[in-house]
Amino acid sequence: MKRSLNKYLSTLSRKDLEQEVKKLYDIFKPVREYYQLELDESTAEILQQYKDKIKAEYFPKRGFGRAGNGASRKVITEFKKISTHPKDVVELWLYRTEVMIDFTLEFGDIDEPFYNSLASGFEQACKIMQKEQLSTEFRSYAQLMLSKTFGLGWGIHDELKYIYDKYVEL
């Protein structure tokens, strides 16, 4: 398929290529979001939209949260497809961690799969922080997550501390 696409694109003039990109931009929201992230100086608006989607899984405007760990993970997967800056992905993972911790503080201890998902997301953030050398930028935010988990069940504080020490506090 990619070979066919490359062949097709090689037959187009610059003007035709521009029209193709504009057409994709008009039709597909992820393409618009990608270019907004790529071309805008600030990524805050798009990032906030994805944060709002995550928050809605745990704290909807009506009713009780579903604690949709899979759904909130899917939001991040969608964001990673359009993201051009690793720091935005780290921020979104840490935000998800924070919302999950706040959910626990609001509604009490949840279950082991919930905490496994929380720890896994925190680890993803910390791995990217280490790989992209963003630890200095996000250290205090990650430490806030640790302080909020002190005293929670299922050993989540110890797990997050272990992850933090492994990737951030080298």
Notes on the protein architecture:
There is one protein chain. The protein has 170 residues and is an all-alpha fold. It is 78% helix and 0% strand. It has helices at residues 2-10, 14-27, 29-39, 44-58, 69-82, 86-107, 112-131, 135-149, 156-167. The N and C termini lie far apart (44 Å). The mean pLDDT is 92.
What's the SSE blueprint?
Blueprint: H1 2-10, H2 14-27, H3 29-39, H4 44-58, H5 69-82, H6 86-107, H7 112-131, H8 135-149, H9 156-167
Key features?
mainly alpha; 0% strand; 170 residues; single chain
Decide which structural class fits the backbone.
mainly alpha
Query: Mean pLDDT across all residues, rounded?
Result: 92
Helix content estimate: over 70%
Number of strands: 0
Shape: elongated
Please sum up the structure shown.
Helices cover 78% and strands 0% of the residues. The chain has helices spanning 2-10, 14-27, 29-39, 44-58, 69-82, 86-107, 112-131, 135-149, 156-167.
